[in-house]
Amino acid sequence: MTHETQPEQAASKIGTEGVSDIPIAHNERVLSGLLGQTVFAACVLFTAMHLYALNVSPIETWAFRIIHVAGGLAVGFAITAAYTLDRSPGERHIGRVEWLAMIPAVAAIVYAAFAIGYAWFIRETQGTPPAGWVLVHLSWALTIATAIAMISSWIWRGSSRSVHWADAVLIVASIIVAAYLLFVLQRWRMAAGTPFAGQTEFLVSAVGVALIMELTRRVAGLALIAITAVFLVYAFAGPYLPGLLEHRGYSPQRFFTYLYTDNGILGATTAVSSTYIILFITFAAFLQASRVGDYFVNFAFAAAGRARGGPAKVAVFASGLMGMINGTSAGNVVATGSLTIPLMKKVGYHPRSAGGIEAAASTGGQIVPPIMGAGAFIMAEITGIPYTEIAIAALIPAALYFLSIYLMVDLEARRGGMQGLPKDQLPVFRKMVKQVYLFLPIIILIGTLFMGYSVIRAGTLAMVSAAVVSWFTPHWMGPKALLNALSLGARMAIPLIAVCACAGIIVGVIALTGVGARFASMLLGIADASHLLALFFAMCISILLGMGMPTTAAYAVAASVVAPGLQQIGIPPLVAHFFVFYYAVLSAITPPVALAGYAAAAISGTDPLKTAVTSFKFGLAAFIVPFMFFYSPALLMDGTWMQILRVALTAGVGIYLLAASVQGWFLNGGVNLVQRVMLLAAALSMIAGGWMTDLLGVGIGGLVFVWQAAALKAKPKALT
């Protein structure tokens, strides 16, 4: 079945069976046989190792991050290789040219594995480092094997029975890089990124960088790779560039070893992926395996399915609930959109509007506390602000975002005269209420966080509770289901692990070259003329840096480039980072590279660029919210309760006025062009957050209301 027809045929099932019984469209093919069992076991071990290290037996920080990256690379190459096997009929034979590539690559990787094993044996038995030639030969053999295997993996694929030899070489190479770094860890800490780094260190770290970029290319596409490549070129081209971009340049030895430190790959992004992301992605896998996540969607359908444009409003709620855990906007679109988009089309939404609504709603899930698609954890790591403070500050912005999407959806439904789904096609709300205990994992997560538990412990307890509550449903999680959940957690986490490691490369370049500091000084100069202009410029850069990138990577890069500049012009750290984070999230629905919009277009069967533009339109009201942070910090819970309440209410009114202007429908009737311009002016005047501008906005909105009422009374038939 196609993405489009499958959910439509299943739409009639919504009711006694519920949404959980509707198949979700996805791209993965189930693996069977020995190969499938091996990949399954590797995924389970990868996830279990992290959970054990996080909760039972901690590992030294650098060593843990090195193992995390290496494990992610090895498992990632195994998964991507297994899912891209040549499944055409007949047996594939290795040609002469491929033999010429395979023999030296396999020989070199075997030699490199022998060399690292021998070096380890000498150190453990004799207590002395091995001869220098051993590590030199190791690094060259590793480099040759990786280069040949990487190029070969682009040309040839494996048979239907086994992973291709080139991918097997890349898996072993990932392990050897980690083994070498752990073998010389103490020296690596002191020499990496300094003039003392030698050729061996350079080759090993360069291989590590290449492996990270190759896996990122496989799981996240070329957009992030292209951006990373630009930064890598900039690191060496800096001495030849003018003005702001100029820097003195660095030797390859110093540059690549610097990237493999806690200033780059092993820094904040990997720190988050090795702890919070792997934990909460596994939590999401437990919710999915226990069908608790499906209950969220069922509950949303039961609560809002009969309302005007009901499926669209369900998309808003369900995407918010699932998106905060999912970690990727496009992934959330596929997870919930395969159901909601066909149902939106069924009740009268244009296919392009259905896709745009789902993309905008799924993107907003990344800013919903307490998890915020792992963004909150990166923000806490970078700023040092307590996680609970960040989660609390995100409450009103998230509410405003989804209020804007909800209003856009409702106004479009009003304008089009749409209805909801029939009662007999929806889950029974009374039955859903009886199962409200399935919200317990989320309640436990929030409760333990604010009781003072660590994020790791709170996430683990929530994950365990997801398994426990499943015992009160038909989808009981036994040992097999638990192993499936651990495997699913690894498969879901690998793309984010690769993306975070690749983002670490960019962060390392920014830190080494100092381009972030120079950008900050440029923002400072712009702010002398206008703070609003500086914020607008920062918004454009944040969106530009985030285009085509997952949220975690987009925020990590923007936080290194843009946020320091905002702080230098006097903006508090929390406001600056929320400003950057918000637009890094919104880059997923900003044309021309809007990943969430493109994913929705694939399901709705519409033109990708037009769907992306539509998603931008539905999220347009949300684009003004970050500017409200600057003018009204009370939106981030920074102020008295009266200030917070007033700003939240006026911001909500401003969001409604902007949505009415965009949709051309105000209160109970349509508005003409002049009235839409007046509504836009009223909405924008409420951004500043002062009493005078708020009163001005309300006054202009009141004028439009009076004008509309007078016109409605004079020509009731024309307007109805």
TrEMBL record:
Residues 208-636 form the TRAP C4-dicarboxylate transport system permease DctM subunit domain. Part of the tripartite ATP-independent periplasmic (TRAP) transport system. It comes from Billgrantia ethanolica. The keyword Membrane applies. Its main location: membrane. Keywords: Cell inner membrane, Cell membrane, Membrane, Transmembrane, Transmembrane helix, Transport. It is found in: Cell inner membrane. This is TRAP transporter fused permease subunit. The chain crosses the membrane at residues 34-54, 66-85, 97-121, 133-156, 168-185, 219-245, 265-287, 314-335, 390-409, 436-456, 495-520, 532-562, 574-598, 618-637, 644-666, 678-707. It is a multi-pass membrane protein. InterPro entries: DctM (IPR010656), TRAP_DctM-Dct_fused (IPR011853). The keyword Cell membrane applies. It comes from the Bacteria.
